[in-house]
Write a structure and sequence with these properties.
355 residues; alpha+beta; BirA Bifunctional Protein, domain 2; 7-stranded mixed β-sheet; 3-stranded antiparallel β-sheet; 10 strands; rod-shaped
């Protein structure tokens, strides 16, 4: 082996021992750098005779090309190895199941709302819906709310900067009770026609769940909250019917057959007599405590008249109940604000379908 062949072999071995691009560049300098072996050989040509210079030069060039080829091979090998290592580190297992998108869940207030509709639906009540921006007549006057009633004050009510055709301001409804008037008047003509034709007054049996608004905010009050209104009118509907209906509703809603209920005398302008409804659980964390859940009463004759019906022929009861309150009791939630914070840690604890 010539001295140049030995140089090529040594270079190739040295390159093979370089395991990083930086090592390889250092190794390259030993042979091809400014003071490298090949460069020295080239410089030495100057001392040779012209004939010798030519043949020796050709040999050195061949050796140089061989070293460069070995260098490039090694460069490529290191680059391939680096790429393979990177691919292995980022390995993607295409056989893994895909990430599933959760089905989400229903809001606890929506769950309670659905439950209320389905239980009252099973007792023959229809469901009515109406506007949240309400006028003075439906929200107050038609419900026998005297003009100086505190519920009309700015402290309790969100007024909207807009008047109706009577010049009365619109407000965000403070309760679902205006739906009593809206629903009954919407059907009053039909009722009157049936009565005129010799029939009896058809029963009004309806609930109206929805959003309501008041200037109120703490752990148990939110400026926006939910109520469900109930109305049952006919020619012989009594307080007894209210008691049975509401008791059965509560027992079904809370899945508690031994739940007890009591009426407490109260005052509402749109009912006479009026009562608050309290319930009592016989087991569980709230056992034994009387909890107020609704206002109720026999619909006031003035209100029946404002529905376009004859109070001499039509009698019945109404109730208004907080949906948020029912949801808090059913799901054991102590702070109403949790319902409206939209914190997923809270909301995702509820099921996706009715419960
Ligand atoms: N509207 C009343 C309120 O928001 C609740 C209420 C009480 C509704 C008695 C009724 C009722 O229908 O008869 O406080």
């Amino acid at each position: 082996m010539t001295e140049l062949d030995a140089l090529v072999t040594a270079a190739a071995q040295r390159f093979a021992q370089a395991h990083t691009p930086a090592d390889l560049e250092n190794a390259k300098a030993v042979y091809l750098g400014k003071t490298g072996e090949i460069t020295q050989q080239m410089k030495a040509l100057a001392t040779l005779a012209p004939d010798e210079k030519k043949s020796r030069g050709a040999l050195i060039n061949t050796a140089k090309q061989a070293i460069e080829a070995a260098l490039n091979d090694r460069r490529q090998a290191l680059a391939d190895a680096a790429l393979n290592a990177q691919l292995a580190a980022q390995a993607l297992d295409v056989t893994l199941p895909g990430r599933q998108r959760g089905a989400g869940s229903l809001h606890p207030v929506a769950l309670a709302w659905e439950r209320i509709e389905s239980i009252f639906g099973s007792m023959g009540f229809e469901v009515a819906d109406g506007p949240e921006v309400e006028n003075d007549w439906f929200n107050f006057t038609a419900l026998n709310n005297p003009p100086n009633h505190p519920a009309r004050s700015m402290q309790d009510t969100f007024y909207v900067d807009l008047n109706d055709t009577q010049g009365q301001p619109y407000c965000l409804r403070t309760h679902t009770s205006p739906m009593q008037i809206r629903h009954a008047t919407a059907h009053a003509k039909r009722y009157a026609a049936e009565v005129a034709a010799g029939g009896t007054m058809p029963e009004v049996r309806v609930i109206a769940p929805g959003r309501t608004y008041r200037v109120d905010s703490d752990a148990t009050h939110s400026p926006m909250f939910h109520q469900v209104e109930g109305l049952w009118l006919g020619d012989n509907v009594s307080f007894k019917d209210l008691k049975v209906t509401f008791l059965n509703f509560c027992r079904a809603f809370f899945e508690a057959d031994d739940l007890r209920m009591r009426f407490r005398p109260s005052y509402f302008p749109f009912t006479e007599p009026s009562a608050e409804i309290d319930i009592q659980f016989q087991s569980g964390p709230l056992k034994g405590r009387w909890l107020e859940v609704a206002g109720s009463g026999q619909v006031h004759p003035t209100v029946v008249r404002n529905m376009g019906l004859d109070p001499e022929r039509t009698i019945g009861f109404a109730f208004g109940c907080g949906i948020d309150r029912l949801a808090m009791l059913r799901y054991g939630v102590s702070d109403l604000r949790l319902f409206f914070d939209n914190d997923l840690r809270f909301l995702s604890q509820f099921p996706a379908t009715g419960s």
